[in-house]
User: Fold this.
Amino acid sequence: MAINHAGGSTVRVEQVDKQYDSKQGTVQALADINFEVSPGEFICLVGPSGCGKTTLFRILAGLEPPTSGEVILNGSTVTKPNTDMGIVFQEYHLFPWQTVRENVAFGLKKANVPKDERSQRVQQLIDLVGLEGFEDSYPKELSGGMKQRVALARALAIDPSLLLMDEPFGAVDAQTREMLQDELIDIWRETNKTVLFVTHDVEEAVKLADRVVVMGRNPGSIRGIVEIDLVRPRSRADPEFGEYYERVRDLIHT
Ligand code: ADP
Assistant:
């Protein structure tokens, strides 16, 4: 199994609503969410705490059903996580008793990929995320940034056409975060995946995305979608970067 360069998923989010019933009454977490993502696009979902980012992420990943509406991935309604998607969470979710190599191999083993092919593929992925030399290390021996590289390699292992990332760099220091952002852009360009990346950080969204889906709260809804027409690599010192940053921030607060 080689790394697939054939392109990413199409995602359609259609009239998604989500309500939670609690003792205090009904919470409208998401209201009338609609957007479409083209194959190979890098989309950031950005918004303040409580605007429904996690809820929308869980619905996109099939971890939670919407109250109404649907998510359509490559023509099929999402009802549970599937092999078209690779998921990366903020908290890594690595198996502490497994080495880097074993963690990355997890999905391939589950998919019954033969051993030789599996080893080759795992090595390719470890090289892709820059972890050569750490194949036999355990998660507790790695820094936060390295753990997130393992999580990314594991998500890419089954060669999904969609990469879903929930605040993946939220737990690492600022310098590592910038490095991981640059590496993710390189990997995205090399693999042509569709990426849906959730963040509360406006600067991160403007740095990474082709389009930023801007959310606000009460209820969680889309305030606007901003196309970021800047060449990469992007610099926050660029005045145009600053203009996009202000535009997204203003939308959040409308
Ligand atoms: P974000 O990730 O943007 O911070 P969330 O999706 O976590 O937002 O939450 C959106 C809203 O839904 C909030 O008002 C939150 O309190 C509410 N909410 C989230 N999960 C639940 C739940 N399981 N039960 C009740 N309310 C929830």
